Amino acid sequence: MNRPTTLTLFAVIPPLAALVLLASASSSQTVKAKVWIPLDGVAAQVGDRIITFGELRRITFAGQPDISTADELRAAMSRDLERAVQLRMQAQAGEDLGVDPTRVDLIVSRLQEQRLRQEGAAALAARFEIEGLDPMDAAADTRRQIYAQHWRLSARGLESLAVRESRERFVRPGLLSELYRTNRGLLARPPEVQFQILDLNVAAVGGAEAASTLADALMGRARAGEDFGLLVEEFGSTMRDTFGVTERYPITLLKDARLARFASSAAVGEFTGPLAIPEQGPPAAFRLAKLLVLEPGAPAPPFVRRDVQKVLSSRFQAEQDERMIRRAVDKLEASTFVWRHPRIAPATPSVDS
Predict the structure, then answer these.
(1) Which CATH number fits the domain 189-295, given the four candidates 3.10.50.40, 3.30.470.20, 3.40.50.300, 3.40.50.850?
(2) How far is the C-alpha of 94 from the C-alpha of 147, rounded, in Å?
(3) Lowest mean pLDDT among 24-38, 92-106, 229-243
(4) Which of 83, 115, 199, 295 is least crowded, fewest Cβ atoms below 10 Å from its Cβ?
(5) At residue 167, does pLDDT exceed 70?
(6) pTM across the whole model
């Protein structure tokens, strides 16, 4: 199959300007530097359909991203192109399943009417303007989403627009019992902890040695009964607005293993010694932490509870669905012709680059 004729990225093709300055693309976008972006042309071909740069640009800037360099722009457009390729591929596969187009059009009309009622005409028009949409674009996007969802449901063996369910959703009791045995730890509720933290910035106090000395002195003052929140406000470099108080976290989600070990054995009100941040290499800060809250966890509930069996069944089916979708996507990708513009294709070796 011949590749589609494409425009060259980061060039101007007179007399029709194929590119436009990012600064002039939309007044709502935050721009720190002049970046050239394509106005139109073929960004990708998926089967016998194309994705234009105009469509891709609309997708990329719908969220009003903060883009200031050409590299950031290419990365954002490459990411959004892959999503658009996947959607177009799955939508085409959904169309090929033989759904009555008039039925899909009816669903699109009903969804558009529902959105109009929920948001109102003025708010919807404003949203379209921000996202660079018109009603026809919005309808086409919705139609593709419907076909893609139809394909995903069918790939999982579930009932969809024109395909009856072909898969048993029942999970046998013996399998549920085995799932409970192997996932019992996941059903337990881990202890939750909350800290008050003082991060002492090394650069702000004259280097690692001075910061280490000051951290030891502050720890002594805190252990002697001085208000730790006021010390955070005076010396801390982070979370000063909350006097160093963090949110509550399950102890299993703490990224710093040293804090997790401390919380596992400490009593509420105890302090850690100064912790170097990062743990390895030259420290950028020293952290003092006070354990404010330690809420005990709870063991896994018994298997006989119906809600436990329902959770296990849902988790098993979700994992099974994910595997089925992944296999179907791999098969679909292998059987579908896809060409991406080499300037925004993923940075992997290919015949197109």
Answers:
(1) 3.10.50.40
(2) 5
(3) 24-38
(4) 83
(5) no
(6) 0.50
